[in-house]
């Protein structure tokens, strides 16, 4: 709840050239393609609906297709999507938990995880898995969240490293990406 508006504000404020972005928005089938088209028109980040085995590219955001699960696979130094019909997880297909758990497994501390406004708990366990790998994890704060369900559960579990207001989230993401890149170079 409120995720479409929150994502629109963030994507519109992000610069081009960032590492690949993967978005899971709870939407039914056939809605995610048009949502991706609308998001693509907002700014320099190229946005499209994810397809199976798609290579993730810098400056690009992909949106999990409604009714399917999305995982990220690593092949060498590249990341690819895996789209599959799977069971509903945490009440959803696509599920944020499925995506976050896969990112934790293949990217770990090189990733940045963000959980935004929404009902329920989807994403909290996956964000915790990311946090435990050393990834930077951000959660939308209560004051700016339309529904402080998903970020609240993630915070209470210890999965959120920093809470951020929606209007400051794009900047926080850019800073987190810079920190993750510096740490990768240092290791």
Report the sheet with the most strands, covering strand number, pairing sense and barrel closure: 3 strands, parallel
The topology string of helices and strands comes to HEHEEEEHEHEHEH
Radius of gyration: 15 Å
Helix content: 25-40%
Overall mean pLDDT: 95
Strand content: 15-25%
The first-to-last residue Cα distance is 39 Å
Approximate shape: globular
How do the strands line up in the largest sheet? Answer: 1-3-2
The strand count comes to 8
**How many individual helices?**
6
Low-confidence runs (pLDDT<50, min 5 residues)?
A: none
What is the SS-derived class? alpha/beta
Helix and strand topology:
Layout: H1 3-13, E1 21-23, H2 32-40, E2 46-49, E3 60-63, E4 69-75, E5 78-84, H3 96-106, E6 112-115, H4 124-133, E7 136-140, H5 150-157, E8 162-164, H6 166-186
Helix pairs in contact: 1-6, 3-4, 4-5
Tags for this entry?
187 residues, alpha/beta, three-stranded parallel beta sheet, 37% helix, 20% strand
Outline:
By secondary structure, the protein is an alpha/beta fold.
Note down, in words, how this protein is organized:
- With 187 residues, this protein is an alpha/beta fold.
- It has six helices and eight strands.
- It has helices spanning 3-13, 32-40, 96-106, 124-133, 150-157, 166-186, and strands at 21-23, 46-49, 60-63, 69-75, 78-84, 112-115, 136-140, 162-164.
- The strands form three sheets. It has a three-stranded parallel beta sheet, covered by helices on one side. A three-stranded parallel beta sheet has the order 6-7-8, with helices on both faces.
- Strand 7 (136-140), helix 5 (150-157) and strand 8 form a beta-alpha-beta unit.
- Helix 1 crosses helix 6 and helix 3 runs parallel beside helix 4 (124-133).
- It is globular.
């Amino acid at each position: 709840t409120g995720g479409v508006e929150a994502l629109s504000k963030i994507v519109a404020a992000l610069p081009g050239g960032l590492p690949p972005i993967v978005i899971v928005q709870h939407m039914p089938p056939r809605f995610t393609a048009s949502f991706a088209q609308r998001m693509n028109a907002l700014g320099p980040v190229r946005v499209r609906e994810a397809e199976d085995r798609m290579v993730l590219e810098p400056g690009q955001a992909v949106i999990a297709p409604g009714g399917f699960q999305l995982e990220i696979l690593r092949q060498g130094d590249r990341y690819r999507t895996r789209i599959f019909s799977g069971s509903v997880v945490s009440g959803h297909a696509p599920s944020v938990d499925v995506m976050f758990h896969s990112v934790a497994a293949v990217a770990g501390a090189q990733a940045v995880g963000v959980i935004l406004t929404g009902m329920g708990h989807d994403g909290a366990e996956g964000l915790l898995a990311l946090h435990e790998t050393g990834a930077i994890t951000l959660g939308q704060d209560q004051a700016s969240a339309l529904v402080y369900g998903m970020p609240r559960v993630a915070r209470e579990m210890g999965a959120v490293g920093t809470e951020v207001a929606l209007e400051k989230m794009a900047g926080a993401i850019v800073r987190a990406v810079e920190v993750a890149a510096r740490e990768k170079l240092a290791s």
